[in-house]
């Protein structure tokens, strides 16, 4: 079952070499072979199939009229613009161009009869169109809605439509789904769906097309999600074929000793997740598990149990965190929990002195260091592990694919003809909504800590305008007098990290002046590591009352006595980041407060974000709303890659189709492997590796 054509080269057909300017523009859109053009579907449609009398047009809706130009002139007030008035038997309409060329002036010369299409607006002098499309009146009207495609600079819609129509003639549109799958899910045949979407007839509901509710769109969304599911299932199967050392532990001696030594009781959710990870580590293929839990749910102790099991199997463990503050937080906790059990914990970051770094690297290479905690310094060429069996990545989405692979490769070794690969546990405090877990993380095993440890106080969230700054300062003074500590988080400055740093320095100076007698500290990403460490140590020890900070404290800071956080210009932060920051308080038994201080007026998006923070503290609900607002690309931190995760389906609204695609993917792989291969060839075309990363 072929899905691409092989005839003589033409736009919409296989293009090799640099080709013409048109072909280079098409290649820029990823349009090379006929199948690429076939699935390059319209963004929207224009109805050019009929003419509307001018008296029947109304504001807010597109319209197409035919009329005579009765006035045309270039006006200079309030700015230079081309203005024309057209008239038919029912009324007149004003046309306006704020940017125009001489040939446009000729198109609307007085006395010419023109066909005009655009969105109608309510102007001061009646209805008008701004920058309408002008063609010659009297030509034959199209018999179908006109598709408008995603394009690139210099590539006209007309050229793109022509190339796509050529591809529709040449491409193999045979169905990649067996009839029984199509019938079960009531799906339109592929060729029919494609032709409907490229050339919809005027009787098709315009809203169904635009809102992607038409059965043709359902088929396309199903196909896209199915291809994704087949690809992820293949990635999962490939991982199962890899080999890893089974880390069964010394009959649970170290994990049992760790549990007995803890000054607190694990939650049922933590115990469940520890058991899931333990079972994975006992397998002879590499674990690839994502551990997700809300802020403060106790992921670090779960990682400690995984490390204890690996170490009792004579393997080394590496824990890599994205920031030194977070790495240090893990290091301190793990030392306290594991060193009394006889486990040697090493520390490796870029800020270590030459002597300390050399000693750490030697301990890692000799195997003396059983557990190594650090930052990206762990993946330096000089770092060699003796026997790395388990890799733990915290806030894994903050690392690039290459960095994650580099750490895993530190533990690769050959056993006969097979490569032995370390087990991998990824941790994230950004809960992943169910539909996202079902789609983009379908190749991973996912564990969820869905309850907080007892004794954690809920955080009260308050929205306060910065016009009430004096009240906020009074609240800080009152909290400190009661013996509590507070954070003051400085706003994000998107244009410049240096500006954000300056903001933090200035804020620290202002607050130190306004709150005389209070011990005000400052921490930001540019501080030398030793100084940063000292500030955090002083804050933990209670030697600092108010800590002014940038988002460097977003993760990993655990000070139970800190019960107040002020986030200045909260409207500039993302929803997930606000939730992470809020999680720095409420770690003790006292009532904690997070003040979101904003500057009016708020944009609609900022208002939605702040409302979400005020209404819920549930990380999964926050994540769902964040996904809704930002889309999967930005949510997962891959928007900058230039790859679109899903072009047609929506994670937010197409959960049911995703579930059906998941079912169908299993059946296609098991019963119809040929169809599965053809389906991937049509829809993925080189994107599998991107999804697997």
TrEMBL record:
SMART domains: DEXDc (SM00487), HELICc (SM00490)
Gene3D superfamilies per the UniProt record, alphabetical: Nucleic acid-binding proteins (2.40.50.140), P-loop containing nucleotide triphosphate hydrolases (3.40.50.300)
Domain Helicase ATP-binding, residue spans: 280-449
Record-listed E.C. numbers: 5.6.2.4
Reactions performed catalytically: ATP + H2O = ADP + phosphate + H(+); Couples ATP hydrolysis with the unwinding of duplex DNA by translocating in the 3'-5' direction
GO molecular function: 3'-5' DNA helicase activity; ATP binding; ATP hydrolysis activity; DNA binding
InterPro entries, alphabetized: ATP-dep_DNA_helicase_RecG, DEAD/DEAH_box_helicase_dom, Helicase_ATP-bd, Helicase_C-like, NA-bd_OB-fold, P-loop_NTPase, RecG/Mfd, RecG_dom3_C
Its job: Plays a critical role in recombination and DNA repair. Helps process Holliday junction intermediates to mature products by catalyzing branch migration. Has replication fork regression activity, unwinds stalled or blocked replication forks to make a HJ that can be resolved. Has a DNA unwinding activity characteristic of a DNA helicase with 3'-5' polarity.
Keyword terms, alphabetized: ATP-binding, DNA damage, DNA recombination, DNA repair, DNA-binding, Helicase, Hydrolase, Isomerase, Nucleotide-binding
Family: Belongs to the helicase family. RecG subfamily.
Keyword Electron transport set for record: no
Residue intervals of the Helicase C-terminal domain: 472-628
Pfam families: DEAD, Helicase_C, RecG_dom3_C, RecG_wedge
GO biological process, one term: DNA repair
Name of the protein described by the UniProt record: ATP-dependent DNA helicase RecG
